[in-house]
């Protein structure tokens, strides 16, 4: 398992960027890549597993741990009313509030057991022990994403092989189990140190990696691997949406913010009209808020209007450039 975790790990990026081609190219370039099962149907996940398995390379699969229904349903209802103006603006209907959605978790775990990728990682929480045991019995090494020492201790109770220490600098959703108070103000170095203080397990560090110096810093601080996402968003093999590529490649200055506005779970994204207008009002409530904003985001994407898109990216967005995945891996290995 240790040989599988290369110094550079290409992060799972659900919502388009992660493709079998990116995972295969990463492996061929001396990194290890993850397929992202989040939001996909089990059929699509299976097709991607087949595509990568056929290439005979090391790889991982990432799953979302199902969220508990939001505690404050009234806050989600209030947010829905607030979003009506956006629905009108884009000419879409807001769906009724949908509190439960397990993202086909059981079916995806079954696929992971059947296809037994060398690594399976989890985000958004700690899977049940039975899930971890079933994967391990199939020969899979299990990794759990955490954002603090307390979450690491919780993850250790189910016996994973690896922890992923995710800093607040990371692009996309935070795996935090405390979404109400999450500010995203930790670095990967800080979370790595906090996690290593409570375990001797191998730890992969994630967040803010844009250069070989960033990778070296985290490896020197004890990480067995460094999981980078944002810096691969413009890779030729990535399935990043054209609207996001265009924003990232424009000469306009950008900054990132941590927001629950799109999904109800804190995520780091490029600041835009939607994050400015809704970050303060957005409640905790993944995936209910994700479903509420989905038609708005889809309509905005169709119009090429990046102002209402969830442009997930971390602080390393300034280092992202269009190139092959192999070139980006090489730039990180140094
Ligand atoms: C567009 C995007 C999508 C992401 N989707 C996932 C995902 O599906 N599962 C997951 O565990 N992490 C996801 N992440 C977070 C990464 O695993 C990782 O923590 C992060 O990319 C590391 O920070 P960096 O973006 O600064 O390199 C995503 C990140 C981005 C940028």
TrEMBL record:
<dbReference type="Pfam" id="PF03060">
    <property type="entry name" value="NMO"/>
</dbReference>
<comment type="similarity">
    <text>Belongs to the nitronate monooxygenase family. NMO class I subfamily.</text>
</comment>
<dbReference type="InterPro" id="IPR013785">
    <property type="entry name" value="Aldolase_TIM"/>
</dbReference>
<dbReference type="GO" id="GO:0018580">
    <property type="term" value="F:nitronate monooxygenase activity"/>
</dbReference>
<keyword id="KW-0216">Detoxification</keyword>
<keyword id="KW-0560">Oxidoreductase</keyword>
<keyword id="KW-0288">FMN</keyword>
<dbReference type="GO" id="GO:0009636">
    <property type="term" value="P:response to toxic substance"/>
</dbReference>
<keyword id="KW-0503">Monooxygenase</keyword>
<keyword id="KW-0285">Flavoprotein</keyword>
<dbReference type="InterPro" id="IPR004136">
    <property type="entry name" value="NMO"/>
</dbReference>
<protein>
    <recommendedName>
        <fullName>Propionate 3-nitronate monooxygenase</fullName>
    </recommendedName>
</protein>
